[in-house]
């Protein structure tokens, strides 16, 4: 990573933590804030995809998908930002699906690590299980008990975890020695 | 390429190049182990994880999309399975971001291949095995890059297999499915590939995943449009490519035995393989998922000795029983050092070409011990050599 990448990574990590704490402290506004963030994120992705299409993918086999994806992201992003109130249900599903994918991959990885004899399988299975339990809690809390705030808390925890990894990677040695 | 070529065919190559049965087995083991030495395996033996020469599928699925992770993936796949053909390749009307990916496309006979073979000189069968694996893959995996990149590695529905030879040859469209549990069906022409992922840096777009295992089958002939070729078609003739790989490997192993012969690209020892050329061609063109038995039979005929089946843990006990620094003198210890040296060299060449996709390389002579600690072993080993 270049020095600039490290600084930007660090700033993004700190911003994520601040954002997570804010939505912890005020879940009502936090819910709205999360939906706004997801909407804005989609709009940014749309522009990123369109840039990608015009700078790299235009002459590539299957490159037009990047253009279509950019347009669809833009559409969804604008829709999300304009209809915040109606999207609580989808937000709960979104968070549950994200946690489920993370948990399922970790559990499968644990199986693979165990078969290969790596001691890392215990931490992987613990991480995967926690994620899968969170999925159940988010779905029960959001869809059965009608309490979407649990999903917000889970989202905030995920953000804090990811920001810690991000900050750690900013300080990690990544260069490789070359000996002639 | 699969174990049939990386292990059994490599054994045949070593025997033809004049190595003993034991040496040939060690070289073949080193070659095939390059497809087994994952981070998970290194954690199991308590080795340095930076020496990983491959990734398990779930290790890749778990990978984050951040810069250090992408650098790590690129270092592994570009160093050992998709050696870049020309790090200074030119292309008009493209951005630097695109050009950096384009320059990592694997091709045979690149300058990095010379560096790879010369790096293995005098470092034993482990380093020779790694070099043979890389060399063989430059033929099989050409036109794909060891980096997750849609704009380089993507393919589409325009994909035809050429079945048979001469007047009996015919073409049929290749049908791909995305279920990794499905076996490739050679009769019907159904193959497994990775699912289309429109995200540029998705691991689904790593290497030849988008065209499945076709590059790994010696019999396969096919034509398709690579993503990077501006809608131009490529015809891939694996039997011919594999034969060239075989002859080049014989030449390279002979060079490694000799003190004076420096390895040169585009040189093939066709003369040495002439007595067995028809037999080799027959194995290469036979339509089968695994040619191990054919290569094993040929190898045993060549040496008159029985070839052991590949056992990933063959040297596990030796490594675990050796304590501390003595581990560096075991088979696996030397393999790990050779893998670290190869990765360090390729990263340096990519970095020196102004391309940051494999991360930063720092010169030990200028800055001393810095960077990822796993590589300090190389410096320590060099100190011993003085």
List the helices and strands and how they pair.
The complex is a heterodimer of chains A (180) and B (386).
Chain A: H1 3-25, H2 27-57, H3 64-82, H4 88-115, H5 121-144, H6 149-171, E1 176-178
Chain B: H1 3-16, H2 21-33, H3 39-45, H4 57-62, H5 67-80, H6 96-102, H7 111-120, H8 124-140, H9 150-153, E1 159-163, E2 170-173, E3 175-177, E4 190-192, E5 221-224, E6 234-237, H10 238-257, H11 270-273, H12 277-285, H13 292-303, H14 316-321, H15 331-352, E7 361-363, H16 364-367, H17 376-385
Parallel strand pairs in B: 3-4
Antiparallel strand pairs in B: 1-2, 1-5, 5-6
Rg estimate of chain B, integer Å:
20 Å
Largest sheet composition of chain B: 4 strands, antiparallel
The number of domains of chain B: 2
The coarse silhouette of chain A is: globular
Question: How much of the polypeptide of chain A forms β-strand, as a percent range?
Answer: under 5%
* Oligomer kind: heterodimer
The low-confidence runs of chain B, each spanning 5 or more residues with pLDDT under 50, are none
Please count the helical segments of chain A.
6
Structural class of chain A: mainly alpha
Count of DSSP strands of chain B:
7
Percentage of residues in helical conformation of chain B: 40-55%
Total DSSP E strands of chain A: 1
State the largest interface: A-B, 39 and 60 residues
Average pLDDT of chain B, rounded to a whole number, is 93
Shape summary of chain B: globular
Give the key terms.
heterodimer, A: 180 residues, mainly alpha, 6 helices, globular, B: 386 residues, alpha+beta, 2 domains, four-stranded antiparallel beta sheet, two-stranded parallel sheet
In short, what is this structure?
The complex is a heterodimer of chains A (180) and B (386). Chain A contains six helices and one strand; from the N terminus they run ααααααβ.
């Amino acid at each position: 990573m270049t020095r600039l990448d490290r600084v930007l990574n660090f700033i993004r990590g700190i911003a994520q933590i601040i954002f997570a704490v804010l939505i912890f402290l005020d879940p009502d506004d936090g819910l709205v804030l999360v939906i706004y963030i997801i909407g804005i994120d989609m709009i940014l992705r749309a522009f990123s995809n369109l840039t990608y299409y015009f700078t790299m993918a235009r002459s590539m086999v299957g490159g037009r998908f990047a253009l279509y994806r950019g347009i669809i992201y833009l559409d969804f992003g604008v829709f999300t930002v304009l209809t915040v109130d109606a999207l609580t249900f989808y937000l709960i599903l979104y968070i549950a699906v994200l946690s489920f994918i993370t948990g399922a991959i970790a559990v499968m990885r644990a199986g693979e690590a165990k078969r290969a004899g790596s001691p890392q399988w215990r931490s992987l299975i613990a991480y995967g299980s926690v994620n899968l339990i969170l999925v159940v809690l988010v779905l029960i809390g959001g869809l059965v008990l009608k309490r979407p705030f649990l999903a917000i808390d889970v989202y905030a925890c995920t953000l804090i975890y990811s920001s810690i990894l991000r900050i750690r990677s900013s300080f990690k040695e990544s260069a490789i020695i070359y000996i002639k | 390429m699969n174990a049939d070529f990386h292990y059994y065919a490599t054994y045949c190559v070593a025997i033809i190049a004049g190595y003993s049965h034991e040496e040939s087995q060690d070289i073949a083991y080193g070659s095939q182990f390059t497809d087994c030495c994952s981070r998970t395996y290194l954690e199991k033996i308590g080795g340095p994880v930076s020496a990983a020469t491959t990734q398990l599928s779930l290790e890749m699925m778990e990978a984050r999309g951040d810069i250090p992770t992408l650098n790590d993936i690129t270092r592994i796949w570009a160093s050992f399975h998709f050696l870049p053909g020309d790090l200074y390749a030119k292309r008009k009307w493209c951005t630097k971001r695109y050009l950096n990916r384009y320059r990592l496309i694997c091709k045979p006979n690149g300058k990095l291949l010379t560096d790879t073979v010369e790096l293995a000189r005098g470092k034993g069968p482990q380093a020779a095995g790694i070099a043979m694996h890389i060399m063989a893959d430059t033929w099989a995996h050409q036109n794909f890059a060891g980096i997750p990149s849609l704009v380089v590695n993507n393919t589409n529905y325009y994909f035809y297999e050429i079945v048979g030879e001469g007047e009996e040859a015919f073409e049929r469209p290749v049908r791909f499915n995305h279920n990794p549990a499905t076996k490739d069906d050679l009769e019907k022409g159904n193959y497994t590939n990775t699912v289309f992922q429109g995200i540029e840096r998705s691991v689904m777009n790593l290497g030849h995943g988008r065209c499945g295992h076709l590059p790994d089958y010696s019999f396969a002939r096919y034509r398709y449009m690579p993503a990077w070729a501006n809608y131009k078609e490529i015809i891939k003739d694996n039997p011919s490519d594999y034969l060239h790989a075989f002859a080049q490997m014989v030449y390279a192993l002979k060079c490694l035995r000799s003190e004076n012969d420096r390895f040169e690209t585009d040189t093939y020892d066709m003369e040495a393989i002439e007595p067995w050329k028809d037999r080799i061609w027959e194995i290469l063109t036979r339509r089968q998922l695994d040619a191990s038995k054919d290569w094993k039979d040929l190898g045993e005929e060549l040496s008159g000795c029985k070839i052991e089946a590949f056992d990933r843990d063959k040297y596990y006990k030796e490594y675990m029983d050796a304590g501390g620094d003595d581990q560096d003198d075991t088979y696996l210890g030397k393999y790990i050092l050779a893998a670290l040296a190869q990765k360090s060299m390729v990263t340096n060449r990519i970095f020196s070409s102004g391309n940051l996709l494999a991360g930063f390389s720092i010169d030990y002579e200028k800055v001393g011990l810095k960077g990822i600690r796993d590589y300090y072993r190389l410096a320590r080993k060099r100190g011993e050599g003085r």
